[in-house]
Amino acid sequence: MTTQLYGFWRSNAAFRVRVALALKNIPCEEIEVDILSGRQFDPEYAALNAEHVVPTFIHNGHRLFQSMAIMEYLDEIHPEPRLLPDNPEERAYARSLALVSVADAHPLVVPRVRNHLAHAFNADNAAIVAWCRHWAAEGLATYERLLGHRPASPFALGDAPGIADICIAGQIITAELYDLDITDYPQVTTLTARCFELPEFRDAHPSRRPGYVR
């Protein structure tokens, strides 16, 4: 069985998939695609992923992209431990939490958005960093409100981490990359500290990946 993950240390989406693979104890070869230097547009990689993004997950010859789709696929081919609950209402709630980062906050800080700000609006580095901090904070503030309505116990949906915790942890990583003050988000920081006590989260952190630059 051939399992490969094309990713990059800076990619939040690749972080999510790395954690999911680790939680399920699925061995995987990781191949670097430097999205900061534009290697996602190389013809060889474009043949694998026409969207020109990471991650790309290859399993038994099948190519998959988009972190949510990959994580749900992993749940289907390797059901234990579960990333999504069996209960339909809880499963929808888990997806809702995950999508705050995946669909709302993270897409606004990816390289193609940062590059567009620079090229179309002449935004300098300081303006781009301020933009990214704003959207990182918006995501954390949303999670803080949601966890206020339903506190983690000890994880977002109970005793074990799942897809929601993975995505909330990813939002904290975005905040770290832009030196955002996270003291206003105590419930988020408590939950994610609990996540990063686990080797599956800790080893997937950008600072643990080859090529990491602070």
What's this, in brief?
The protein is built from nine helices and four strands; from the N terminus they run βαβαββααααααα.
Structure keywords:
214 residues, alpha+beta, Glutaredoxin, Glutathione S-transferase Yfyf (Class Pi), Chain A, domain 2, 2 domains, 8% strand, glutathione transferase activity, maleylacetoacetate isomerase activity
Task: Describe what you observe in this structure.
The chain has 214 residues and is of the alpha+beta class. The chain has 2 domains: 3-77, Glutaredoxin, CATH 3.40.30.10; 88-208, Glutathione S-transferase Yfyf (Class Pi), Chain A, domain 2 (Up-down Bundle), CATH 1.20.1050.10. Helix content is 52%, strand content 8%. The protein has helices spanning 12-23, 43-46, 67-77, 88-105, 111-121, 125-149, 163-177, 186-196, 199-202, and strands at residues 3-7, 29-32, 56-59, 62-65. A 4-stranded mixed beta sheet has the order 2-1-3-4, with helices on one face. Helix 1 links the parallel strand 1 (3-7) and strand 2 (29-32). The longest helix is centred in the middle third of the chain and has 25 residues, at 125-149.
